[in-house]
């Protein structure tokens, strides 16, 4: 069975990532993984770069030009293409959910996803709000 796992290291210089990700470096040495240095795309922000990596298009073409733009991708992307080809997809950070499954992200409904009808079929989406208080449900007469 062939698998592709893409690990994006956001806001970490290439040399620092290469020097400090020992296990991934070992996989590359054993020819069980590949390492690619992806040149940045302007604007130098996370969400536009995620969309660029997953669509292959520059920001000016896909339209995600800032981190605050919250909407689904309007371009063909790796998640759509893989799921359309019968492959299984998964992701973890909530911006991927917002770009490829549903926007805006709902911390309760979208946090854990197992749905073969979505572009990202399996997700355990985390946010920068990981320490939010639990939602307590009770029936009060």
What key attributes describe this structure?
single chain; globular; alpha+beta; 3 strands; disordered C terminus; 141 residues; three-stranded mixed β-sheet
Tell me briefly what this model is.
The chain is an alpha+beta fold and 141 residues long.
Report on this model:
The protein has 141 residues and is an alpha+beta fold. The protein folds into two domains: 1-37, no CATH class; 41-126, no CATH class. Helices cover 30% and strands 9% of the residues. It is built from six helices and three strands. The protein has helices at 14-20, 22-29, 46-55, 59-62, 78-84, 94-100; strands at residues 90-93, 112-114, 122-126. A three-stranded mixed β-sheet has the order 1-3-2. A hairpin with a 7-residue loop joins strand 2 and strand 3. The radius of gyration is 17 Å and the shape is globular. 18% of the residues are buried. Mean pLDDT is 89; it is low at 132-141.
Rg measurement, Å: 17 Å
Task: Give unreliable regions as ranges.
Answer: 132-141
Report the sheet with the most strands, covering strand number, pairing sense and barrel closure.
3 strands, mixed
**Number of helical elements:** 6
> How large a portion of the residues is in β-strands, by DSSP E?
5-15%
Question: What is the assembly state of the chains in this entry?
Answer: single chain
Distance between the termini: 55 Å
SSE pattern? HHHHHEHEE
> Roughly what is the average pLDDT, rounded to an integer?
89
Taking strands numbered 1, 2, ... along the chain, how are they ordered across the largest sheet? 1-3-2
Helix content: 25-40%
Shape assignment:
globular
Number of strands: 3
**How many structurally independent domains?**
2
Q: Helix/strand-derived class?
A: alpha+beta
